[in-house]
Amino acid sequence: MSHKGILTDVTRCIGCASCVTACREANDTGSPVPTPWQPDVNELSATRWTTLDRLPGGRFVRRQCRHCLEPACASACPVGALQKAPDGAVIYDSARCMGCRYCMMACPFAIPRYSWDTAVPYVRKCVLCHDRIARGEATEPACTEACPVEATIFGDREALLAEAKRRIAEKPDLYVDRVWGEHEAGGTGILNISDVDIPLPATVPTDPLPERTMKVLRTVPAVFVGVGAAMVSLRWLIGRRDRLRAEAASGDGHTEAPATDEKENH
Amino acid sequence: MDAWLDFARGPAFRFALAVMVLGLLRHFALALLSVRAILRRAGDKTLPVTQIRKATLSWLFPVKKLGHHTLFAAASVLFHLGAIVAPLLLAAHVTLIEASTGLAWPALNPLAADILTLLAIGGLLVLFVVRIAKRAARDLSQRSDYGVLLLVLVPFVTGFLAAHPGLNPFPFTAVLLLHFLSADLLLFMFPFTKLVHVVLLPATQLVSEAAWRFDPDAGEKVAKALGKENQRI
Amino acid sequence: MDAGNSRVRTTKAVLWFIVGFAIIVGAARFLTGLGTVTNLTDRTPWGLWVGFDVLGGVALAAGGFVIAASVYILRREKFRPLLRPAILTAFLGYAAVAAGLLVDLGRPWNIWRPMFFWQHHSALFEVAWCVMLYLSVLALEFAPVPLESSRFHRLTKALKSASLPLVILGIMLSTLHQSSLGTLFLIAPARVHPLWYTPLLPLLFFISAVALGMAMVVVESKASAWLYRKRPEDHVLSSLLRPLGFTLLLYAGIRIGDLVARGEGAGLFDGSWESALFWLETGLSSLLPAASALSGLARRSGKALFATGLMVVSGFVLHRIDVGGVSGVGLTDSGYFPSLFEISLSLGVVSGAILLFLFFVERYRVYDPEPAPARRPAACRAPLAAARAYSSVFVAGAAIAFALLPGGAVFGAKPLDMPVTGARRVLAVEKTRENPPGKMLVFAARGAAEAREVLLVDGNRSGEYALFDHEAHMKRQGEKESCGICHHLNRPNDRESSCFECHRDAWQPTDIFRHGAHIEATGGNRGCTECHVTPAAPKTRAATRPCRECHEDMVATGKREFVAPPAADSPFHAPGYMDAMHGTCRKCHEEEDRTKGVKVPELALCSTCHPEAVDLSPRPAGRKD
């Protein structure tokens, strides 16, 4: 299955926030209220999975889960509650989630949100309306469907990338020559083109983050066995050294049993 | 003044409530532990269940005792009836609890609540008078016994005044604040005063029943321990 | 061990107090969620509980495998007296980690799932497995201590004979997860400050765990010697100083060398609070104690020995807290500082572990018995004296915690109160709209004939507002009954009425009914019956006379608003901000965009550009074309 994605063209967005309302209604997120942990109702929260950021010059850009090609959150999750679906959406299975919030730590875009005010909390973020599409209730996410000016469109990532590049090539004077999401964090399902710079968090790397963990985790079996072997041989070596010393000390072949071996079972 | 009211029915109330609930639980648990310790030492290991039940019930419903000290017993019963039922079923209290916790139960009608409150106040005053008037009771009384009566009296009086502003000669808010604070103090003092009898009544019966039963040869043992085996008692 | 001395009693009383406090906090956290008792936010998802309880706890428990390795692998028999307390500390440390984790996890009932859903690419998955296994190993290693005085002689013997393989397995597991806790943060460069983030985090975590293990043995041994008034094992502890010192030097060398090699060296001296934190942490954890350990200062005095150990312990715990969240506070601009309740719960978990430690020490042979001192006969104490004393401080702690908890932690979280800028009067006209059918207010053109005064409700929402026809609300509700519904303090604890009871997207108090002023105006207590017709009944809205019976001239003037909510299914609801914006602004923006290619910059400023009424066509149901 091809990797789905969303292309948002900042030059077309009129900032009407229809996408936000549609998302809230489609996913039944509830209304956002100001809370100690998120006083700004216009920020992403457990009850707001997509939002609009104001850019200079009256532009707007959507912010939501970027559905990375190699999602850090899904690789960090110790129980597989967050997973990369075959269609490219990073989806959430609340039944498995144990609420460790490692995904929130791992996400380079700082997207996942948490329901802090309930005894049964969830990790919340855009899931590309994966369930609704899979159930046949919709053919595309609620946000792109609701957009009145086709500023944000849904499709195969490859096709969207081609379309983005076509638009840039068509109006090179208008657009910044960059497709946001093409390479960031190893590439993301969400793509943006714009006539002004879109500031991403300074810490968004170009390399996929899961690899940094894997580099270490690949050595785990070797370290595990190695440490075990090292300990056994070290014990033997030191035991032997002690015995030889004891023999040398007692002078003629009457070896005393090394004290250490006797004591260890006490 | 509003800040004081909020303090008295917020943090102060929660503190007092927690002290009362946990403190009473603590007393109850400790009583059970000491029963266990006593039973371990006692010669007869069976629990005197029937006697304890009888003694507890006769204290809970002191019908028999009405014969002996009629005024005292009647006042005590009426006081307890009012003091327990009125605060728990007062409509204003129920509304208050429902607003903060969502829990609600049927409330008394205002007239019944008034009568019960007055019964509690009246009963308390009679208990007070009896304690002073009877020589035996007066001699047994400590200062704290009068203190407890006062401690219980104040919340009921201020509560009644707050509910009947027409009869209230003092500023309404001040009376309300006094009501909150005195009620907080009353809850808080439960584990530290004789009021602890609300949980210890059965346990006390148990301890006294169990502790006062000795082995048949207990007397001999005491004498032996004291080294006065063959002396006259 | 003499449990009766005053130091032990005081210490235990303090610990029980903290445990009582923490248990109430823990209960509130489970009933009402993490957000109500912690200062955690979406920007700081991990805080003190992860940094201290989990990362710190695991590191503090490292003494178990370090001492076990010294005795069993390096065959240093002189450390054997330290073995049992070290294993016990480790076991209780990991148990505390598990307890802290249960509190910190949002959905702790799923904690068993890593066992069945294998995610080999997750560092946390590996940590979960190692901790689980190592906790079991430690339980088996320690089990002989309580068992040796029991009837299970064969089991005890079997466990004792298995101690060597258990120790080796324990070392293997410890090596892995002590370092894996560092691996956890490799995926989170966005959350860890560059002075702490390095690919070498796993290595640094492991080395510091080894050093911390040795230091913890020193601290724990000295502390219990002080507590039980017995002679400290200084001569044994002193021989830990050389290996400790060299480990610390190794750590500090790698830590600073790595920063310099990666070009972050400049950050060490840039005067930021992170650089100060770095020097505090590194100085405390490795530089100062290494100097003290290797120079012989710590060898000469028992106090210096203890101080050295304590510095290492606190320095490395600080390191774990820094990596676990504090160093990222500046990066994420979250301003996180743990709340009183987070701190108290962390302390509560530690206190619980210490109490268990003391229990085992007093009950079983954890320390080698001392030559029996000529002890005074224990004073005759009342039965259950200990239980009475400790339970009362426990109750005190719990009650104070319950009093201090914020309302949200007891009754559930509420929306944040935010200051409101007052509503102001503007001129508007009414327009009909089709979907949903009804009427809408729009700003009136200057001098428009049918214009009337309405309220512009702004809240504090950065220039975003809604127009509110106060008078119409009042009329619609039926005049007389209307006031109390939105505006009166007519329920217990009401402080002000809230628009949001009807309009779910507005949270702010409007004006409040001043009860005190009404008492005065109606003549003190006698006046109550003016409004509360049956004074003994609860003072609810139903039992209270409507305002308009006295205030016949109340109108919407912007200061004294009296409105009522419509029926739930009324089509005449006042639009919330979003609806208002979508309804009023969209069309224009579309047209401007299409026809002129002009972008209208600020939605909220439509009215200033277009004083005349805009067309109010409904939002298109689906996408065109």
Task: Summarize the helices and strands and which ones pair or pack.
The complex is a heterotrimer of chains A (266), B (233) and C (625).
Chain A: E1 4-9, H1 18-27, E2 51-55, E3 59-63, H2 72-76, E4 82-84, E5 90-92, H3 102-106, E6 113-114, E7 123-124, H4 130-134, H5 142-146, E8 152-156, H6 157-170, E9 190-193, H7 210-217, H8 220-250, H9 259-263
Parallel strand pairs in A: 1-9
Antiparallel strand pairs in A: 1-8, 2-3, 4-5, 6-7
Chain B: H1 2-9, H2 11-41, H3 49-60, H4 70-89, H5 91-101, H6 110-133, H7 135-140, H8 143-163, H9 172-189, H10 197-211, H11 218-226
Chain C: H1 6-32, H2 34-37, H3 48-60, H4 63-73, H5 80-104, H6 123-142, H7 144-147, H8 153-161, H9 163-183, H10 201-227, H11 234-238, H12 241-261, H13 273-295, H14 297-300, H15 302-324, H16 329-332, H17 340-363, H18 385-404, H19 407-411, E1 424-433, E2 438-443, E3 452-457, E4 466-468, H20 470-477, H21 484-487, H22 515-521, H23 528-531, H24 577-596, H25 606-609
Helix pairs in contact in C: 1-17, 1-18, 3-5, 3-15, 3-17, 4-5, 4-9, 4-10, 5-6, 5-10, 5-17, 6-9, 9-10, 10-12, 10-15, 12-13, 13-15
CATH architecture of the largest domain in chain A: 2-Layer Sandwich
Shape of chain A: elongated
Summing up helix and strand content along with how strands pair, one would put the structural category of chain A as: alpha+beta
Number of strands of chain A: 9
User: What is the average per-residue confidence, as pLDDT of chain B, rounded to a whole number?
Assistant: 83
Poorly predicted residue ranges of chain B: none
The helicity of chain A comes to 25-40%
CATH topology of the largest domain in chain A: Alpha-Beta Plaits
Percent of residues of chain B in beta strands? under 5%
